Amino acid sequence: MALLTSIEISRIRDLARAGDYRAAGEALNAIESVDGATTEVLQLGAEIVAMAGNHRGALEILKKLVGRSPKSARTFRLAGRSFEAINDFVNARRAYLEASDLDPSDDFSLAHAANMFEATNEFATALTLAKRLESRAPSAQQRFDLRLMQASCLYHLGNDDESFAMIEPLLAQSPEDPRLLTLQGRVLMRFGQTDRAREIFQTALQHAPESEKATLRNLIDFVDGNVGDGLDTKVTESLFDRYAAKFDSHLVGRLKYSAPELISRVAREHFKSRSFDLLDLGCGTGLVAETLADLGGGRVGVDLSEKMLREAQKKALYFRLHQVDIRQALNDTQAESFDFITAADVFNYVGKIDDISRNAWRVLRDDGMFCFTLELDESNPNSTATATPSMRILHGETAVRALLTEVGFHDVEIESFVMRYEAGEPVNSAMCSGVKRRALQ
Ligand SMILES: C[S@@+](CC[C@H](N)C(=O)[O-])C[C@H]1O[C@@H](n2cnc3c(N)ncnc32)[C@H](O)[C@@H]1O
Asked: Over the range 164-186, which residues count as b (16 or more CB within 10 Å of their CB) and which as e?
């Protein structure tokens, strides 16, 4: 690169940093007209476009560089940042890892890759990377953040004692860090120390950014045993928006998720060769519809997460998809509109299911079936809803059987099965179903 060009590039970057994207773009075009679309020009173009907030545009520019030789770590680092900014954590992770492979001294990219592994629930990998990075992190703040990541991963992997032991000294350094306090509260909740956990969540709430407050309010309610409507819908939405891109491969491939197959089996046994119209509550990426794809009938899916719905849309298996709360969807649906209403791995986010069950009965046609999974509260079969520190909501088998019977369902079945594995441990669950048979007049 000519010296003049390199000076000009610094000037362009300064213009962009000052927010004058138009002037930066014009100056860059002037260089491009002389030097052509060199790697530096395209990288700077992508950087400016990303600074202006157009991350998809930045990725389009960077795409032109991916096949170019020699590969540049900077290209992948920029791509990682833009993928991260649009919440595509799986591609962000890939891009950061590629950057770090190309430039082994690029710990910025490796640290971001670790963040992306944590954000996509790959806690064992995030933990390994965080440990590796901590030993060579140059600043105290970076070491702090990497230890916090390790403590969080350990908690998610079920190593509560180790997690707790890491949190204590970090809190001595930064007693008001809301991430640390939230994590400590969750560990204490698992230890059954609810009073201390509540106090800590309340302190965390005072220091937390706006985006984290809904989660903390949920945790304060949960620690007090108030499950209410379950997770705040914004919390659920952002949880699954972040999970969507890797949902199928992670849940089915890694965690051996089996609910859709079992639901398909129950539906086929009930409807035999009859076609049926399906309402898929919390349809996610459409795994349930996939298992029923060879059957006739209309299929409607509803979900809170736009990104999950986008994945479902790609499979083209639903007649209609709506971004809406399942409770609202049921309220807004006319009586006797569907034959099969299902909810696979959904009710562990919504608290009590009384109104949902009543409404499902109303919305079903005669001989229709309501079929859903639950995570069981084995210590309290009479529980209508129990929240765990991991913010999942469990239900008691006896309470659900009584509810379905009281609502009017016949042939109520509650079958235990392992829905998936979490940190290598089976998640004991139940497949529940009931049939709507109108009493003879
Ligand atoms: C674990 S996923 C299961 C997805 C799908 N049922 C399957 O079996 O693959 C749970 C889904 O329920 C959705 N969900 C949770 N609570 C919801 C609510 N109140 N209203 C609508 N969707 C909800 C989430 O957005 C997420 O897509």
From this structure: bebbeebbeeeeebbbbbbbbbb
